[in-house]
Amino acid sequence: MDLGIAGKVAVVTGSAGGLGFAVAQKLAEEGTIPVLLDLKEKMLQEAVQKIRLHCPQAEGYVVDLTTFDAVSATYEEILKHFSPPEILVNCAGGGPGFQKNITELSEPEWKRLIDINLNSMFNTCKIMTKGMLKSCWGRIINFSSVAALRGGGLLGKAAYASSKAGVIGLTKALAREFGEYNITVNAIAPSLHITPLTSILTPEQREAIVSAFPLKRAGDPAGLGALVCFLASDYAAFITGATITVDGGYAMH
Ligand SMILES: NC(=O)c1ccc[n+]([C@@H]2O[C@H](COP(=O)([O-])OP(=O)(O)OC[C@H]3O[C@@H](n4cnc5c(N)ncnc54)[C@H](O)[C@@H]3O)[C@@H](O)[C@H]2O)c1
Question: How close is the Cα of 114 to the center of ligand 1, in Å?
């Protein structure tokens, strides 16, 4: 199936990480030009080298997405080398203390988690979408979590669940705001996928988590990459404001 997204510039945040990398790889396989953004320089460069096997034009930029001015400067840098991004995938997330109960969490840790998981998306959704608003075509895909739908749990507690619920609110609000510009905005809410973020879980904790899923296993990051490619395509042109769970059935109600 030709998704018709070849040649489009696709910004993927958090793409030195497990899911962001899987997303960037699938987007490259579909012929888009991935622009990888992440905080971790060495891992980002390694990711870019791998993505270039599919797309030699792929590029990476080191940026702290929680800083508005740094995101603006990165956008200007991208425009020196590429046409304005038409696809934005907000995958950066996590953060220290995401598994702490509110009784253990300090105020700076709370604020940092909201910064990483929610405020960074304000920055990218405001800055990286300027070209989409002009050309009246765009796709924004935001990574939330089942933690937003289930009130946290072993996959993230109060601050993480709150920030990821904020992602769903932002997604719906932008779907309304950007709809008349032919820009769709959707969220993905995964449950457990094995990545650097979740590798801190012990085998016992993983087993406890997946035993609550109807499918009794963790997800494959490649599936999330394929879903992002579908949401970026014109086949998904009538899907907006949705939160799609990819969770082995965990959050169904
Ligand atoms: N892996 C899972 O099971 C799972 C489940 C639900 C939701 N999620 C969400 O999916 C997304 C990807 O998760 P992952 O498992 O790939 O995590 P990961 O830790 O492997 O990757 C996250 C990436 O985000 C980057 N990042 C964090 N803060 C940043 C900042 N301020 N500026 C730039 N980059 C920053 C990190 O450097 C890292 O490379 C996250 O938003 C996470 O909350 C993951």
Answer: 13
Considering only CA atoms, which residue is closest to atom 41 of ligand 1? 93
Q: List Cβ neighbours of 188 (8 Å cut-off, separation of 6 or more).
A: 141, 142, 143, 144, 224, 227, 228, 231, 243, 244, 246
pTM of structure: 0.98
8 Å CB contact between 191 and 250: yes
Structural domain harbouring 84: 9-244
Ligand 1 atom closest to residue 219's alpha carbon, by position in its atom list: 3
For residue 91, what are its two tokens?
A: 């995958």
251 part of a folded domain: no
Segment 91-107, tens digit of pLDDT: 999 988 888 999 999 99
Q: What is the pLDDT of residues 111-166, one digit of tens each?
A: 999 999 999 999 999 999 999 999 999 999 999 999 999 999 877 899 999 999 99
Q: Is 160 a catalytic residue?
A: yes
Residue 235: CATH number of its domain: 3.40.50.720
Return d(Cα 46, Cα 234) in angstroms, integer: 31
